[in-house]
Design goal:
This protein is α/β, with parallel strands linked by helices. It has helices spanning 14-30, 42-54, 114-129, and strands spanning 3-8, 35-39, 63-65, 74-78, 88-91, 105-110, 133-138. Strands 3-4-2-5-6-1-7 form a seven-stranded parallel sheet, with helices on both faces.
Length: 143
């Protein structure tokens, strides 16, 4: 059964979402998984690419933009771009496209902002209807 994890942050701050996503990417990649991160746009993909280089001084997360055609454990894309693997899909875009449902695991980072909340609720229903094993991770309780 495919697993989907939702990480619910206590803030409406988009930067906190990006910061948490970097930490999550680092953790998942360190566990030996390949990660595809889907963003809303090319500019958002490039911003995440830059952020992964310096989000934590002692961190090193090998990554590349999917458009660069490099084989990296973490790949970042937008639109219809996809990596070769189907391991972990981190959705930083608002909607879940059909190809995301073929990954072994999906991740969503939720902030307390109306647009993101509405989109991730719809994504939750989509995963639920597909029979995914859903896990809610309330990061508000872990502060």
């Amino acid at each position: 059964m495919t697993r989907s994890d939702f990480y619910v942050l206590p803030t409406p701050d988009p930067d906190a979402r990006l910061r948490f996503a970097c930490q999550l990417i680092e953790k998942v990649q360190a566990l030996g998984h390949r990660v595809y991160v889907r963003t809303e746009s090319e500019s958002a993909a490039r911003a995440l690419d830059e952020r992964l280089w310096d989000f934590r001084e002692e961190a090193f997360v090998p990554h590349a933009l999917v458009a660069a055609n490099e084989d990296a454990p973490v790949q970042i894309g937008y639109g219809d771009s996809l990596p070769e693997h189907r391991d972990v899909y981190l959705n930083l875009a608002l909607q879940v496209p059909e190809p995301a449902l073929a990954f072994n695991r999906t991740l969503e980072v939720v902030i307390q902002e109306d647009t993101v909340l509405e989109a991730t609720r719809a994504n939750y229903r989509c995963y639920q209807q597909r029979g995914f094993e859903i896990h809610m991770n309330d990061m508000r309780a872990k502060r």
